[in-house]
């Protein structure tokens, strides 16, 4: 069991280095391995959330438009405002820079804030949804 913990810590360090270099998709591939090797690894879910938000931001729509639903990790485009607010709160609690010290956490926090603003404004959301089609 101790061997798995050491390998998990090493995998987490590799993922964190990738995050420092801006390779969030690479870190997203390695971090779950670390979690699988040792379930009680500190802050691995926070690391994964940062990676997921940045990977969602890398996915672009037509005209180089951001995929706000992808950033908030919302699968359906037919969600109501309450679901958007709930998902934003869930992510904001884990991504707030005071609580999440991983590289890219502050930028991820700003991205989810921008996504919330865009999706809660009816006009901006309908324009965004037209890009999605």
From TrEMBL:
InterPro entries: DnaJ_domain, J_dom_sf. SUPFAM superfamilies: Chaperone J-domain. Gene3D superfamilies: DnaJ domain. Residues 67-132 form the J domain. This is DnaJ domain-containing protein. It comes from Cephalotus follicularis (Albany pitcher plant).
């Amino acid at each position: 069991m101790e061997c798995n913990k050491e390998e998990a810590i090493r995998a987490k360090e590799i993922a964190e280095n990738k995050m420092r270099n801006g390779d969030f998709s690479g870190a997203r591939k390695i971090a779950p391995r670390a979690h699988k090797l040792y379930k009680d690894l500190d802050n691995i879910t926070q690391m994964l959330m940062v990676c997921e938000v940045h990977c969602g931001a890398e996915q672009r729509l037509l005209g180089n438009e951001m995929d706000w639903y992808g950033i908030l990790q919302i699968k359906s485009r037919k969600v109501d405002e309450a679901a958007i607010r709930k998902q934003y709160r869930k992510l904001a609690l884990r991504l707030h820079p005071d609580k999440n010290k991983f590289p890219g956490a502050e930028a991820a926090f700003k991205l989810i804030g921008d996504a919330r603003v865009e999706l809660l404004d009816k006009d901006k959301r309908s324009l965004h949804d037209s890009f999605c089609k």
